[in-house]
Design brief:
Elements (H helix, E strand, L loop, with lengths): L11 H24 L6 H8 L3 H7 L8 H16 L7 H12 L5 H17 L3 H26 L8 H22 L11 H13 L13
């Protein structure tokens, strides 16, 4: 028996739209890192991405909003890794494994991606609007994580169950705090004090080895 995908595949138009958004996001990140948000205009971002200014504003309200898709990519990847874990697996272990793999640096592209995130987080220190985008992306990631955690908890556990929500919040906070801490340093992308190292340490402290227990009496 085949397993149907949980969401329908994207149409060609939707894929092109997402690709354009990501191209704009990369352009914005490069310019923010090099010149800061104050030294970057929406016109400059559109020019770097090779799109018209009206196309930029079709997708984003502000220049800071433009990096949202780029910041969300990491969360999308690690949720997919977590969703691939076996139902009923020990949740703290599954979370740590998914986070470690998501923040691993198998190639130069992954290393460049983390360094780009570092540049954005440094720029956000002086830009409340950019910080707001970062916090929004993390909140949305946490909300998307809840059903994944609930599925791993098994036995009809609700995504709104208290322990599910706490686990999702702890995992999201672990990654956010790790990246913010790492961005303030010159630590390497791998090894001690790297994002993967810091995130697993944060998760261990936040979760204390606990997680949602399978329920036998139906959803909360």
């Amino acid at each position: 028996m085949s397993i149907q995908p949980s969401t329908p595949p994207l149409s060609l138009t939707e894929r092109r739209k997402l690709a354009t958004q990501l191209e704009i996001a990369h352009a914005a990140a490069e310019l923010f890192t090099a010149h800061g948000t104050d030294g970057t205009t929406a016109e400059a971002i559109a020019g770097r991405a090779g799109v018209a200014l009206r196309t930029f504003y079709r997708y984003f309200r502000t220049k800071q909003d433009a990096v949202g898709p780029l910041l969300a990519v990491g969360g999308d990847r690690w949720r997919a890794l977590l969703a691939a874990a076996e139902p009923g697996a020990a949740l703290p272990d599954a979370l740590r494994a998914a986070i470690s793999e998501a923040l691993a640096v198998p190639d130069d592209a992954a290393a460049d991606g983390l360094r780009q995130t570092r540049g954005l987080l440094r720029a956000a220190a002086d830009d409340p609007a950019l910080r707001a985008v970062w916090y929004r992306v993390n909140q949305e990631s946490e909300e998307k994580l809840r059903p994944v955690v609930a599925e791993l908890a098994g036995a009809g556990t609700s995504a709104q169950h208290l322990e599910v929500r706490l686990a999702a919040a702890a995992a999201t906070a672990a990654i956010r705090i790790a990246l913010e801490t790492w961005a303030q340093t010159d630590a390497a992308v791998t090894g001690p004090d790297s994002p993967a190292d810091l995130a697993t340490r944060c998760l261990r402290e936040l979760m204390g080895g606990t997680g949602p227990r399978p329920r036998t009496d139906g959803p909360a």
